[in-house]
Design goal:
Radius of gyration of chain A: 18 Å
Low-confidence stretches of chain A: 1-14
Helix content of chain A: 40-55%
Mean pLDDT of chain A: 86
Shape of chain A: globular
Largest sheet of chain A: 3 strands, antiparallel
Oligomer: homodimer
Largest interface: A-B, 45 and 45 residues
Number of helices of chain A: 5
Strand order of the largest sheet of chain A: 1-3-2
Strand content of chain A: 5-15%
DNA sequence: TTGACATATCGTGAGGTTACGATATTATTG
DNA sequence: CAATAATATCGTAACCTCACGATATGTCAA
């Protein structure tokens, strides 16, 4: 079995493992009940932080934090209009991915 | 001690938020570079713990732990043959989900 | 049986994630 | 201007995840 005794520095077997790091990062961002719910909502329209917060049952600052995380993954963009900030989907693959998730986990 | 301070209990607005908890759980299980790689491998055949461990560049016990987590989500099953244990995909939606992930995060 | 191999489990500690409260920022209204 | 509304940011503490090493379990072979 000759396990590589090289401490795990950066040295993943070059089988595209590096690519999985990005995917894992984004999946991790998606993997939260409140965030999934926000994605679901935003796939159907644009909403403000307050609207999303209320619908998800979390305080505004918590909602804001979740939205910031997802924005960093490129899922959403935001525009300010007056004192409100509207979020909307920016990642076109998000709908397809969400449908896969729903067909597996939510449809039965 | 174990003083549970009654965090915000279960009080999600009943918009199907509970369902997202399961989905988030499974997504979280998927959201790890090594585990994604294992899924990718096992979508193409059955492999032993040692084979998966070597391919992912992690020690056997670490691989075993990852596989256990995924088995708990119903992604895989395992059969022992001699001293080896073979894992294989048990969740039929996994392939579709993985294709979504790859088309978003790995194809560019 | 003893020993080796393959896998699994357990305890531990480092580091990450989360919700919360307090505070800060930005924009509107009086 | 001050006051309020909507959102964002920050520090903190509780909790969770992960990899590691040690050990345990299961299997086969001599």
């Amino acid at each position: 079995m000759t396990i590589q005794t090289e401490q795990h520095v950066e040295e993943q077997p070059q089988n595209g493992a590096a690519k999985f790091a990005d995917a894992a990062e984004c999946l991790k961002t998606l993997a939260h009940p409140v965030r999934l719910r926000m994605v679901q909502m935003l796939l159907e329209g644009r909403y403000t932080v307050g609207e999303l917060a209320q619908d998800c049952g979390v305080p505004d600052n918590v909602a804001s934090e979740h939205l910031r995380l997802m924005q960093r993954c490129g899922f959403f963009t935001s525009q300010r209009e007056g004192r409100r900030v509207y979020y909307e989907v920016a990642e076109p693959h998000l709908e397809n991915l969400m449908n896969c998730i729903k067909s597996r986990f939510l449809s039965e």
